[in-house]
Amino acid sequence: MKSINLTKIVFVAVVLAVLVYLILPILIVVPMSFSDSRFMSFPPPGYSLRWYESFFDSLAWMSAAGTSITLAISTAVIATPLGVAAAYAIHNCDHWTVRYVKLILLLPLIVPIIIVAAGVFFIYALTGLLATMPGLILANVMLAMPYVITSVIAGLYGFDKTQEMVARSLGMNRFRAFMTVTLPQIKPSVVTGAVFAFIQALDETMVALFISGGENQTITKRMFTALRDEIDPTIASISTLLTAASFALVLLITMSRKRT
Amino acid sequence: MSTLTIPSTESPTAAVDPSVKLLKREQRTMQMLLSPALAVVTLLLVVPLGWLFLQSFYSDGFTLEHYARIFTEGIYWKTFALTFKISIIVTIAALLLGYPVAYAITRLPRRWSMVVLALVIVPFWTSILVRAYAWLVLLQRSGVVNDTLMGIGLTDSPLSLVHNELGTIIATVHILLPFMVLPLYSTMQKIPNDLLMAGSSLGASPFMVFWRVFFPMSMSGVIAGSTLVFVLCLGFYITPELMGGGRTVMASMLVSRNIQLYSDWGAASAVSVVLLVCVVLIFNIVSRFVPLEKILGSK
């Protein structure tokens, strides 16, 4: 019996250590953001709101935040209907090509992001879309669609197709049948997909490093440059705000799932 | 092919058969629904991939010089070797750290398992830039980790934990760990408890039950998680760039530097093609054992 207890203790210790490793870096950002020091010392020598002030007072950071929020909202608004339409078609079609179509649509998840970034950069350099908002949105729509598609396909699996057929046989056209019968029932999966699309666009850094710039620079590109060149403590306050925003969105998903 | 030819060969009257007409209409609707999504991916990803492929063989005519360079120039093949080395270390570390956690989530009482699962998912939702910053704070010379190590007397002088390979690995494992834990957890969850009880009722020790019953049944999760972590790590850019202090050069950095610093598309595209071929080969081999959807499911 004693040896079992010992393995158990070692096991619990390992799991706890891994959990500390996972969570510590996320927690440490919060006190750092309230530091009153210019240096990255922990614990901070004193507390203040100066790094939040330096974020909200900086035109450059504010403009980058604005770009990122506009980008994230536009991406979710565009990628969600495109993804839902594609997921619906994939789910309802049994043509032999569907497998390959699905593979192409999931390609942005398979190809290493650096290669995606290089490819988009090349196309945008040719078409003059570099450092433009439409260019940023289009690239993020491509990156976000797979999340919407996989989420909605999973939602459609749990939905009884015959209900939509009944609505159509009673004279509704396909679009109305979908909107009034199917959509309300797969809503949680659509909301999840939309939130994923939003977060993906807010978080996306690699492609933004290549294609965003000028007045259309995303907050992630600015953060990356700031982290690489000289560490500006403003990063801590932005990090805290970003993390808080992600949590709020995850809560939103969980709540929307619980309601149904 | 077969479904396409059925209408024309089955009977000559098929063209006027209303069900065939309906089927055609149905297919047109589906095409219409798919086309916007397909157009975006084709234009922004499939076309550039094709162009990169052509470019990798081009320099005033057909050439293999861009590929030859990868194998002859030290910086190129050393970078690929380092990329594979780091990816292997990260995958093994993530497996060793992730397996006990996934196991704990499946074994713990429900309330606790939800807490542990939440602690795994929370970092998943945190920006990798935020985490890079946090690791810079934690691992710097006078950071928390060094202070603690010196405090408990494990070392006399601060260790260099960041701006090198070690820092890159610590931060990369942190980012990729959830990609290991989630597929492991979803596989372990499906292992029926009855089998484990049957094992122990037949006299196997808890260790034997784990090693001979549970572990082999969790293999598909191990494969799915390891593949995902390895492949993601092969293409990692942001973390090694920030944590590696410019010395830990990975394959993705060769692509980025060749484009942004030297505008050398030939070199950049050859590196991209080699990287992509590695990724596709790995997915292709692994998908014979574990379906691709299962691997990408948690991404």
TrEMBL record, chain A:
Pfam families: BPD_transp_1 (PF00528). GO terms for biological process: transmembrane transport. GO terms for cellular component: plasma membrane. SUPFAM superfamilies: MetI-like. It is found in: Cell inner membrane; Cell membrane. Keywords: Cell inner membrane, Cell membrane, Membrane, Transmembrane, Transmembrane helix, Transport. The keyword Transmembrane applies. CDD domains: TM_PBP2. Gene3D superfamilies: MetI-like. The chain crosses the membrane at residues 9-34, 59-91, 103-125, 137-157, 177-199, 235-255. Residues 65-253 form the ABC transmembrane type-1 domain. The keyword Transferase does not apply. It is a multi-pass membrane protein. PROSITE patterns: ABC_TM1. Belongs to the binding-protein-dependent transport system permease family. This is Putative spermidine/putrescine transport system permease protein. It comes from Marinobacterium mangrovicola. The lineage of its organism: Bacteria, Pseudomonadati, Pseudomonadota, Gammaproteobacteria, Oceanospirillales.
From TrEMBL, chain B:
Residues 80-286 form the ABC transmembrane type-1 domain. The chain crosses the membrane at residues 33-54, 74-102, 114-136, 166-188, 195-215, 221-240, 261-286. Keywords: Cell membrane, Membrane, Transmembrane, Transmembrane helix, Transport. It holds the Pfam family BPD_transp_1. GO terms for cellular component: plasma membrane. It is found in: Cell membrane. One of its GO terms (biological process) is transmembrane transport. Belongs to the binding-protein-dependent transport system permease family. CysTW subfamily. PANTHER family: ABC TRANSPORTER PERMEASE PROTEIN, INNER MEMBRANE ABC TRANSPORTER PERMEASE PROTEIN YDCU-RELATED-RELATED. This is Putative spermidine/putrescine transport system permease protein. It comes from Marinobacterium mangrovicola.
